[in-house]
Amino acid sequence: MMNLQTKVLIDMKDKAYGVKIAANLQRMGIYAIVSNKEINQFETEMMFEKYRIIISDIAERYVECCVQTIIITNDSNMIDMLLFHDSILYISKSLSVESICSLIKFTTDCGGYKVRAERAATRFLRDIGIQVNLKGYKYLRTGIVCTALQPEIMENSTYEIYDVVAKKYGVQSGSVERAMRNSIEMAYERCPELIAKKFIYPIGKPSNTELIMLAADTIRTWVF
Length: 224
Description:
There is one protein chain. The chain contains ten helices and five strands. It is of the alpha/beta class. Strands 2-3-1-4-5 form a five-stranded parallel sheet, with helices on both faces. Strand 2, helix 2 and strand 3 form a beta-alpha-beta unit.
C-alpha cells in the first residue's frame, strides 16, 4: 500500500499548464502526475519517492487522501480563503513555472515534518472523540503540532501554548483555553474509555496540558 502521508495534491484548473508543472517537477526528482490514467496507476503501484504529487483539475476528488493541497491561482477571493487553512499552500500564478516548481520542492523538502505532524494530530484527536465542528478541535490540533515540532514551547510556561494558538487565530488566550477544555470535557463525558486508552497511567479527565503533551510526544514517535 502507498503511504498517503507523503501525497501532495496540486489543484490546477488549467490542465495544459499543469502538464508543464508536472514535467518540471519530475526533472527536479519529484514524482508528479497529471492525467487520469496516471492517477489510477499512481493509486495501485508501490512508489518509493519521498514525495508524490497529483496535479488535477478536479482536485476535490483527491483532497481527502492527500496530506497537503497546493493551489496555484491569482483569484483574490480564493487567496483570502486559503490563507486561513494550515493544509493548503497558495502559490501565485504570476511566478514562472521554474519558480513555482522550486517553491513546491522547497515546501515538500522542508515542510514534511509539519505536514505529517498535522495529519497525526488530526488522527489522534479523532481517535479520542474530539468533535471536529468545535473551535477547541482546531485549537488543540494547532497546539499539539506546535508542541510536537517545538517541545521547548511548554518548558517555561504551560500557558505559552495558549498565546501561540491565540495569535494564530486572532483571539484571546483565555478563549483558546476554554474552547480546548470544553472539547475535552465533551469527549470525556461521551466516551472516557477512548481517552483512557491513550494514557499509559490511570487518569480521569485530562487537562489541556496533559492531553497536548501526550499527543505531541506520541506524534514525535510516529513522525520523526
